[in-house]
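Hi,

Apologies if this is the wrong queue. I'm a grad student, and the batch job for U8 snoRNA-decapping enzyme from Lingula anatina produced an output file that my downstream script rejects. I'm not sure whether the problem is my script or the file. Here is the sequence I used:
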Amino acid sequence: MAQSDPHDAEWGVLAANEGYGRPDSEEDYEQISYEDAMGKTWGKNEKKPYRHAAHAMIYAPDGKILWDMYENKAVILMTMRFDGYIGFPGGIMDDGETLEFWLNRELEEEIGLDLTRHSFTKEDHVLSHVIHKKKLLLHFYCKRVTLEECLEIEKRTIDADEYGFEVLGPIRVPMFTFKDNERGLPIFLSNKFIGNAKEDLLYCIERENIMTKEEIQLALENCEKFKARYVR
Ligand SMILES: O=c1[nH]cnc2c1ncn2[C@H]1C[C@H](O)[C@@H](COP(=O)(O)OP(=O)(O)O)O1
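Support response: The file is valid. Your script probably expects a header line. Output copied below for reference.
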C-alpha cells in the first residue's frame, strides 16, 4: 500500500516512536512523583497523548580486584542499543496493564530476564520524570541481585528475542578508575547515553551506596577534562 505520510515513508515502522530518541538536554527533564505521573490523564484528549516508558538497572556489588590494582565496586548491567546509544533495558508501555507488567515484558524480550526469579515490582521504582517536549513520562527502576545472579542475567541477554535487534549487546559499567583519573568510569561517562540514562545510572550508584556523591562528582569532572582534551 502507498505511504501517504512522508514521515512514515522515511521511518517506516519506526515512525511512531522515533521522536523519543532525538537528542535533548538535561533541562527538558522534570522530576515528578510516581503518583503524579500515574494519577493525571496527561493529554489523553489531545491528538498525541503522553506515553509512559520504563527502564531498569540490575546490579550486584562486586569488590573484585582487577590487575591486582583496582577494585571493581559493582557489576552494573547496561546495553548497547540499536541506535548506537548506551541505555538500560526497557521501553515504551502500552495501555491496559501496570507499568511493571510492561517493564517485565520488555526485560524478558530485550535481555531474556527470567521473570519467575527476577520480576520487577512497584517497590523497585526509583525515579519518574516528565519531558513535555516529547510528551513522554519516564520511569526508572533498580534491583540489586547477587553477583552469581547478575552474571546469569547478563549471559541470558544473547539468547533474548531482541538480541541483534533492539539490543546489540550487554555491557558493564567500569566501576573503577585508573591512576590517571580518566580510564575507567570517567571515560565511560563520555559515551552517548539515551534519554537520561546517564543521570539514572549516577543517581542509583549514589542511592545504592556504591560510590559517594563526592566520588561521582570527581568522575564527572575527570570525564569533562578528558572530553576537553581528547574527543575529536
Ligand atoms: O535507560 C534509559 N533511561 C532513561 N530514558 C531512557 C532510557 N532508555 C530509553 N529512554 C527514553 C528515550 C527513548 O527514546 C524512550 C523510549 O525508550 P526505548 O527503550 O527506545 O523504547 P522502545 O524500544 O521504542 O519501546 O525512553
